[in-house]
Amino acid sequence: MSAITYDYIEKYIRGLIKDERPIIDEIEKYAKENKVPIIHKEVAKFLELMINLKKPSKILELGTAIGYSAILMEIASNNKCEIVTIERDNHMVSIAKGNIKKFGFSHKIKVIEGDCLEVLEDLEEKYDLIFMDAGKGHYNHFLPNCLRLLNKNGVIIADNVLFRGMVASDELVKRRKITIVKRMREFLDLVSQQEFITSVIPMGDGIAVITRRKDYE
Ligand code: SAM
Fold first, then answer.
1. Does residue 24 line the site of ligand 1, with CB under 6 A?
2. How many angstroms is it from 13 CA to the middle of ligand 1?
3. Residue 118 reports pLDDT greater than 70
4. What letter does residue 167 receive in the DSSP assignment?
């Protein structure tokens, strides 16, 4: 039970997603066997949809892990977008680079090794889509730089914003997760201000889709 939605709903929706891509299956299998957290299938489908609608030419991802979501986003763009993705774990970085190479995407997906808190400070180029999927306890800290790096009509998609339901209900909060939950609530409060149009969707572990309101650009 995800505590975000009903199991039977999740199972049904996942059953509708019938992508068959052998190399992708291999990465999913590796993630499962090695307990590497990767985006849920329905979130992957949502990203694919957003990329087809928005047609971003530059994507920034926070949290590469083994490159699964970055590869899926590149495929979704029909190999048209440039992706910069940040990961602090060097073992993950080397697996991600290997996977990206297998797809022939090394010239399209750049993996930066480092902590998002530091790497974001040094980035200058603007992005059309920013996918936040690293360091749930720091989304509130990442936000100012993400907004600085977001193009005028850009979109931020943040994963895990409901964090197993804990963000929405004190009753579900585990003591050792209190700080993460507080900071995630702070993040959601920030992006719920008037200057943004934000939709929080109870999908996967909860996603937030954020864009700047026109009058505030
Ligand atoms: N987006 C990936 C996918 O779906 O294929 C999954 C990313 S996983 C949920 C989060 C990753 O972020 C982990 O590999 C972790 O090492 C990394 N991470 C966590 N905090 C970070 C930080 N502050 N800076 C950079 N990477 C971080």
1. no
2. 25
3. yes
4. T
SS percent in the chain: helix, strand, coil, step 5? 50, 20, 30
Q: Which domains does the chain have, with CATH numbers?
A: 7-159 (3.40.50.150)
pLDDT tens-digit series, residues 55-92: 999 999 999 999 999 999 999 999 999 999 999 999 99
- Residue with CA closest to ligand 1 atom 20: 135
The reported pLDDT for the residue numbered 1 is 57
**Do residues 65 and 94 make contact, with C-beta atoms less than 8 angstroms apart?**
no
Question: Judging by DSSP bridges, how do beta strands 82-87 and 196-201 pair with one another?
Answer: unpaired
DSSP string, 67-102: SHHHHHHHHHTTT--EEEEEE--HHHHHHHHHHHHH
Q: What's the rounded Cα separation, in Å, for the pair 32 and 190?
A: 34
Nearest alpha carbon, ligand 1 atom 6: 38
CA of 213 to the centre of ligand 1 (A): 28
Pocket test for ligand 1, best of 88, 111, 112, 129 (most atoms within 8 A of CB): 88
Structure tokens at 203: 């999908």
Does the Cβ of 112 fall within 6 Å of ligand 1? Answer: no
Distance in Å, CA 215 to ligand 1 centroid: 33
Burial class of residue 147 in the structure, from the number of CB atoms within 10 Å of its CB (0-12 exposed, 13-18 middle, 19+ buried) = middle
- Centre a 10 Å sphere on the Cβ of residue 185 and count the other Cβ atoms it contains: 16
pLDDT at 129 over 90: yes
